[in-house]
Amino acid sequence: MGMLRTILKRLRDLFSRIARRSESPANHSLTEVETEKNWLNLRYHADGQIKKPDELENEMENPPNLIDEKLLDRTSGSLIGMALGDALGAHVEFRPHAYLLANPVKDLEGGGTWGLKKGQFTDDTSMALCLANSLVVRRGFIPYDQLVRYKWWFEHGYMSSTGNCFDIGAATSQSLHEFIHRQTVFAESYRIPLEKLDYLSDP
């Protein structure tokens, strides 16, 4: 994706600024950021299986203050509409035009390329949910946090309807592999434990 490539370019500058602020490899000047909203972080069942978006509903908390109901309706509607539209076409993804003419989509169905169940969405919605969660928890556009969540989806199935990353585009995969590589190099250079790397704040 072009957006991921743009974010990676910005990350190169970000890592450079972080490195300049670090007085020594043993004393980096970063702080850890982990949301108090547990459903926005990686969550697992007792058996080690990741919790899927629909399973996190019981862990969600009501906002502490009054919110704009009209804005909430618009936001919810756009996300639900996106997921429904994605699920509606999931079973015909990658089908040729002739097939679609002969078999027009009229209702939610299972099957297709990925053998999804009726109503399950694809990687497009998963990545959009990663972006939405990042915007909520960081209260703004933070490229590093967004890429971390895309990585969680890629490696752990975060925000996937099936609990795993069953499809990913070539450009997205390449970009995320590059991001993971840069994370690892940075962690080794500044002696940052890998388990803390995803929760570093931006400078």
Tally of DSSP β-strands: 0
Helix content: 40-55%
Radius of gyration: 19 Å
Distance between the first and last residues' Cα: 26 Å
Element pattern in H and E:
HHHHHHH
- What would you call the shape? globular
* Strand residue percentage: under 5%
Number of domains: 2
- The poorly predicted ranges are 17-31
- In DSSP terms (H or I, runs of 4 or more residues), the helix count works out at 7
Mean pLDDT: 83
Give the structural class. Answer: mainly alpha
The profile of the biggest β sheet is: none
InterPro entries: Ribosyl_crysJ1, Ribosyl_crysJ1_sf
Keywords: Magnesium, Metal-binding
Binding site for Mg(2+): 122-124
Cofactor: Mg(2+)
Structural commentary:
The chain has 203 residues and is mainly alpha-helical. The chain has two domains: 140 residues, no CATH class; 54 residues, no CATH class. The protein is globular, with a radius of gyration of 19 Å.
